[in-house]
Each structure stands twice: as structure tokens, then as C-alpha cells.
Amino acid sequence: MAAITLNVNGRAHTVDVDPATPLLYVLSDDLALNGPKFGCGLGQCGACTVIVRGRAVRSCVTPVSTVAGAPGADIMTLEGLGTVERPHPIQQAFIDEQAAQCGFCLNGVILTAKAFLDQNPKPSDAQISQSLATTLCRCFAHTRMLRAIKRYAGRA
Amino acid sequence: MKKLTIDARQAFAQAGFSRRDLLKGAGALVVTFSTASTARLADALGVGQGQFGTQNARVGAQLDSWIAIAADGSVTAYTGKCELGQGMYTVQMQLIAEELSVPLSRVKLIQCDTSVTPDQGTTSGSQSTPTNFNERNLAQAGATAREALLRLASERLAVPVDRLAASDGVISARGDGSKRVGYGDLIGGKRFNLALSTTAKRKPASEWTVLGKPVPRVDMPAMATGQFEFVHNVRVPGMLHGRVVRPPAVGATLVSVDEASVRSLPGFVKVVVKKNFVGVVCEKPWQAIQAAQHLKAAWTPGAGLPAHRDFHGFMRRQPSRDALLVNSKDVDQQLARAASVITATYLYPYQMHGSMGSSCAVADVRGDRATIWSPTQSAYPVRSGAAMILGLAPENVRVVFTRGSGCYGINGADTVSFDAAVLSQAVGKPVRVQLSRKDEMAWENYGLAYVIDQRIGVGADGAILAWDYEAWSPTRGGRPGYDRPGNVVTGMLLGYEPQPFAPRTPAPEPGGRFNNNSNAAPSYVTGCVAGRCGGAGIVKSERVLSHTIASPFFTGPLRSPSRLQNTFAHECFIDEVAAHVRADPVAYRVRHLSDARLRAVVTRAAEAAQWEARPSPRPNLSRTGVARGRGIACVAYEGDNGYSAMVADVDVDQATGAVTLKRLVIAQDCGPISNPDGMKNQIEGGALQGMSRALGEEVTWDDQKVTSVDWRTYRSLPLGFAVPVVESVLINRTGVEATGSGETAITIAAAALGNAIFDATGARVRQVPFTPDRVKAALDART
Ligand code: FES
Ligand code: FES
């Protein structure tokens, strides 16, 4: 066990955990966040995605020690992006398009798309698809999700 | 700390419970009723006590078990049909808002909590809309409540009912706005004390202002912002974390467990062993995962599995339980007279629900009481099953449905609920269990593999004279129901037997009424049994013979169970026959259908897709390069529970066998539409999920164990695949009963795709999934 400080959604938290613990468990258990989800634990589905240093990171396969403490290593989760009252524009786009069924994958889909679009503001459709090549939605709300992503991309 | 939701608190308060009644123990959400208070609550809500093995027959006889009106006039409704991602929560709110003429914002809905909601069995089988939106149950409760409120207002205002109008939760005299009274003033906080009326009139669709509208999902903002609380996010104070250790092979049994191998690990609490059930409990999730990995357990070898490659042949050779759905007894004669006889065999693999999130549940079992937060589709049945396993009285077990990942049938939700219950009982503390990806995938109740032999005789005029169907499919377990926990893996490991399988050959002659039996009967036959015909078609000479065999794996309903597999075979086969007689596939279908609604969806889909009438394959085929084609398929789901037709446009790369979907057009008739956007969402998702199943999904195994245990070994089309355009044509038919709409489009996807590949290339692929290798093999086999 070790004391590890994490900057999550703009706040610092210190937790006492095994440094090898994947970040996901620290976020969802120790910090009681609902956004990141366990889907596969294998880096194959995207459900656990968080944004670290502007990049989409799969927290289920990221040891917590590798994202500890350093300034600039801010971790953003879906709840850090916006709220029900003030959703982030990409969240609003998903709401407007009614782009989900069970909603379990939304965390991964929205954060993966956001991290990609932040770095590629004017992507082609093929690039968008490429960025989602290993992100899953088992309800297959694909058409709506892609519409939401493009709606947000058009606005950005 | 997790608290009761406002809705739940209000519901309990309305049932005569104080907050103190509810919150016993350390402030946790542990609703521990005394037996007397349980009975009082049940009585207050008109819900009798369920027993093992039964669904409460009195369900919903009383209006108060469905609807309560608070002093402020807000309406709380109770339903046993839950939100699974299909939109059922929002649309049931619409229903209540509509029938009671209150704004949506004044409606609260409490779903699937065994302590307060009516026992409506399982949320499944496209039965929620038929059950709660036609003239019974929740819809009828709404109508009964509205009429009761009008009668009360009539007395209060001294105005005849027919001169009153309800709007916005207020009843007023037509033409005299000064005479008005709100629902809260009429009945707020009191019970109706009325039986559900069988004669109360639903609002006609022509007057709908909330129902029938594309009302956005009320849960969407919370889901999109990470605020939504799934069962995975339930946190009970003092909660520990469990992990199960499943056998390494199918049929392996436990020899020994070495607790010392994990005792010194950080956070370790306990190893739990019961017969072949093994689990560990630790303080934190990651610790539980480590402990499960490190636990030394010895198992016997597995029972051995039939070869995956030859599984379809294996099924044909097994002792089977046989059933005849229809048998006109002239099929052989008709086939003998036919101008030509066409035969084909279609093969379908086991597939899995493969939920996005592996299944999770939280249980708090202390002494003789238990609460289980479960994503099950079957709250009441799971309550009975858990009570059996725990040795508790069912009335002392409360199952609170809490949303999980989309399940599409019986994923690991029921089994993990049992896992959590067993582990919690063993440590006397609340325990959360989430399955590993592998445990979810290797042990779930798979959708059925199938072998389907088809034979059709056609006359000189091209018309179908006789249709002969014979199929083999496996079964083991299924939904646990109220008294069969052995139908899922946890129950089996604990020593409960799955549903027994009894071979029976030959099949008895069909009796009673015609039963479409999961679309085993093609849409094109008359479906005549004992002189009464229930089919959707005109082919009189018909035989439908099904063989069920014992499955080596657990099986269960996977979205459109058997309907999809059967429809794949029927809709590809009629296409083959149409091609044989050089008929246009749309016209040929319509020619053999008698059901007007099914014909209408076929025609509408074809129109919307600008269908060009001609036989398949398309003229001037080229054997190389990328070929484009279109295919159609249709279904009357279970004969009369939703009508759908799909036109698929595809490209086939003839060098590689890779298939690209270009456009899907789906026309659908589900009776009166409650929420058109919700229906579209279901159509779009169903169509693409169907395509993922058709193109890549297949359970695999070696001689001991399942080998498709993650997203590399079980292929699901990702967000980034070349997603086709999906267009839906909604046919809103009022004046008929509402049907399901969640399983129709998926049912016809594989067939529309197979027919499109044939149209493009002249190659017929008869085995799902249509992997590039299989498509390539079919292309190479063209003569
Ligand atoms: S849970 Fe991390 S990628 Fe699936
Ligand atoms: S909405 Fe259910 S997994 Fe995407």
C-alpha cells in the first residue's frame, strides 16, 4: 500500500492503495465516481476511459501509480466534463440525438470522441471511425452516436 | 451514503410506512421489514405474498398497487416492467401522464422493486408493451384512476361526469372554469380502494398529447454526464467486494481449495466454498481480483465437449425431444407431385448476450433477511431463487431492480445476483460482485445454435405447393424462474439441477391451437391445426418438426430467441426459391402471404428503398471486384407481436469475401406507437446488433472449455465499423393492440444480409456468421 495523490476533475485526492491497482478501481471505488465503468478490464472496450493529459486512457489497464500526482496529470472523468444542469457541448449533443440505449458505454464513447476531436478538430468520417475502432456499444446505438459526435464536431 | 430515492421514500410513506420503518441498521439502504410490516405493506399495495414456484395470481387486482396520488397532486405509478435501455421507463411515464392528464414532470415511476411493485414476472420477450399498454395492467390502472377521479370530482363539484374535463391534474366543468378541483384535493395521500376496472376506457389515440410523441428519455442527461447510478455504482456502507472462481472446464467439479494460498493477501476476508461454488471476499475490488487469481483450487477434468467444427452434425445425432407444430399430412405427396423440389440447410452458431459491462450485483444478507440490488429482468423470480439458495423466506428477501448494462435477454444478471447473495451471507456483510469479462462470457446462457433443413416443392406456375421444415437446437437451463436456480451457473455450482431434459420421439401430432412457436412456422404457411388456421400465409401443405437436444452449455433467451434463427432460415430460403423460379423476391413474398399487415411492411420497405422489381441475383454479374446487391426479409414476430421488413444494400469484395453494409431500410408496424423516437432507437439498434451477430459473432470452444471469452475472441462490430445508413419507416396503426418493437428488426437482419450477398454475387451463404472466409468459400463455389 502507498499513499498516492491524484488530481481528478480539478481536485486533489490522496488514497492509500496498492500502486499496481488499475486506476479504474481507485476512481470507482475509492473516489466513488460513476462515470468510468468496468466493461472488460482488458483494454478492449473503452468503458473505463478517462482523459489524462488530453488523451483518452483506458483506466482498467493503467496502474494508478503511473498517473499519480504530477501537475498537469489531471484526470478527467465523464462527470468532470459537465453536469445534468450544464452539460458539456458533446454531452449535450448526445442528449439531443438521444444517442444511447442502456447508456453503459457512453462514458467510453463520449470521452474517446472528445479526446480525439480536441486534437483533430476537422476530422473526416474515416478518421472518426478510426478513432472508435476499439470502442464498443453492445446496444448498437451507433448511428445516433456518430450523429452526436459529428454534431459536436461541426460546432467545435 | 446511499439513500432511498425520494420516489421510493414517498411510495413507502404512502403505503403507511415511516422512514424509521424503512431504515434500520446503520443508516444503510437496508429495508428490513418485520414480517408483520411486510404483510401490511403488501396488503396496502394489494400485492399478496409470493411463494416459491408461483407468480402471484392476484397481481394488480387493486388500483392502489399501480397508482398513488400525493397531496400535491403528483402521481406515482408502480410497474413490474423495467427499463433495460429499451426506453420502457420513459414510455410508461408517458402512459400514466396521458391517461391521467398530468404533465410528465408530475409523474414518478417506481419499477421492479419486490417490496412495492406488482409482480409482473420477467421483463422480456417483447411483452412489456403488450402487457402494460393495452387494456390491462398499468394502462388499465391509468384509465381506472382517471374515471375514479372524474367520479370524485363530479360529486365534489356537483357536475355530471360527461360535463367535466381533466387537464394538468385539475378537473374542471366544461364552460365554467370556476368549478375546478385538483387531484391532490380529491384523493391526495389516500388510497382509491378500488379494483382495477375492466370497463374503464383508455384515451383514444386521437386525443393523445403525451403518448405517441417523441418524448426524450428522462434518464438521458444523467447517463450522458456520468451521474446515472447503475447497479455497478451501488455503494452500501461497510460493503465488501467478492469475486467468483468458476471451474476451469465445463463439467469440472471441485476437489479441494487451499485457503492458505490467499490468506495473507492484503484485504483478504474469506474464501467461500459451497459444493462446487467457490468465491473470495476482500475489502477492495482489486484485492478480490488478486485473491481470486491466486487462490489454489483443484478441479476434476471437465466432462469433455463435442467438437466445435462438427457441432451441427453432433446435434443431428443426439437423442431429442420432438415437437410437431403443424402437419397437414400431405407434404410428401405434394413434394412428389411438385415441378421441382428445392432443399437447403441453414446453420446458426451459439451466440452470447455479451453485455458491455460484465454483470454486477450487490447483496446484503444479514440474519434471516436479505436485500439484493440486481440488474435482473426478473425481480420476483430472482427473489424466490435467492430465497431458496439462502434458506430464507421469500418475503424476507427484497430484490431492488437497479439498472445494469444492456442485457438483451439473460446475461449474467441473475447468476451474479445469486453470487452476491451467497457471498454476503457467508460474511454477514454487504458484498458487491462484478464478474470478470471471462466469467461473464464463458458461463452465460447462450443463444441457441441451430440446424435447419428446409424443403419446398413448387408447381409449374412457380407457386409454393408444400413447405417442410425440420430443425435441431440445444437446451440447458434458461431463466431460473421462481424455483429453478440451477438454470444458471451459480445455482448449478451450488447443487441445484437445471430444468430436466426428457427426449421424446416421435413427436405427438399437433393439437390444440396453432402456435407459431418462435417463428418455427414460416410466415408463408396457413398454420392449420384441427381446422383452425393461424398462419400468415397461403401454403396449405405444411410440416414443422423441431428436435431439441441436451446442450453442453447453458442456454437462454437471447434477443429474438429462436425467432431470429428460424427467420434467418425461412427468409433466406424463400429467397432461394424465388430465385429458382426467377421471381422478384418482394412480389414472391407478397404472393404467398395472407396477412395484410405483414404484406404492408414488405411493400412499404420496398417502396422506401426504391426496390427495383426483378429476380435475384442481379443481371450481368461480374465475378470480380466489388459487387453491390440488395436483399429483403420480413417477419411477423411470433406470428402477431410486431411486423417488420428490412431491405439491405451491401457491397461484397469478391477478392476477400468482406461485406460492407451500405444502407438498411426497415418498415415496422407495432400497432399504435407510444414513442416514435424510442421505436426508431430500437429499430436502429436491433438492425445493427443483428448485423453484428450475422457478420462475426460466434461462441467457440475446445474439448474442455469455452474459448470466446473476451472481445478479441468474440467479435462485436465496434463504433468505428463502416456504419450503414439506417432508415426506419414507422407505420402507426391505431385501433389495434400495441405490440412489442424491440426484437423485430434484429430478427430479419441476417436474412436480409444473406439475400443481399446472393443478389450481389449469386453466392448463397447458409451459415452464420458470414465471416469473410465463409463468404469467400461460397463465392469460390459458384459454378
Ligand atoms: S473496461 Fe477498460 S477497456 Fe474495457
Ligand atoms: S447504449 Fe448500451 S452499450 Fe451502448
Overall description:
Chain A is α+β, with helices and mostly antiparallel strands and 156 residues long. Chain A folds into two domains: 79 residues, Beta-grasp domain (Ubiquitin-like (UB roll)); 64 residues, DNA polymerase, domain 1 (Orthogonal Bundle), CATH 1.10.150. Chain A is 35% helix and 15% strand. In chain A, a hairpin with a 2-residue loop joins strand 1 and strand 2. Chain A starts with a strand and ends with a helix. The mean pLDDT of chain A is 95. Chain B is 28% helix and 21% strand. At the A-B interface, helix 1, helix 2, helix 3, helix 4 and helix 5 of A face helix 8, helix 9 and helix 19 of B.
Strand-helix topology:
The complex is a heterodimer of chains A (156) and B (783).
Chain A: E1 2-8, E2 11-17, H1 23-30, E3 49-52, E4 55-58, E5 75-76, H2 78-81, H3 89-96, H4 106-119, H5 125-131, H6 142-155
Antiparallel strand pairs in A: 1-2, 3-4, 3-5
Helix pairs in contact in A: 3-6
Chain B: H1 6-14, H2 19-22, H3 35-44, E1 67-69, E2 75-79, H4 88-100, E3 107-111, H5 128-133, H6 137-157, E4 164-167, E5 170-173, E6 176-182, H7 183-187, H8 220-224, E7 240-244, E8 254-258, E9 268-274, E10 277-282, H9 285-294, E11 296-299, H10 311-317, E12 321-327, H11 331-337, E13 340-348, E14 360-366, E15 369-374, H12 379-390, E16 397-401, H13 413-427, E17 431-434, H14 437-443, E18 450-458, E19 464-475, H15 489-493, E20 528-529, E21 532-533, E22 541-550, H16 563-580, H17 585-591, H18 596-608, E23 626-636, E24 643-653, E25 659-669, H19 676-695, E26 725-731, H20 744-761, H21 772-780
Parallel strand pairs in B: 2-3, 7-17, 15-16, 19-22, 25-26
Antiparallel strand pairs in B: 1-2, 4-5, 5-6, 7-10, 8-11, 9-10, 12-22, 13-18, 14-15, 14-17, 18-19, 20-21, 23-24, 24-25
Helix pairs in contact in B: 4-6, 12-13, 16-20, 19-20
The complex binds FE2/S2 (inorganic) cluster (2 copies).
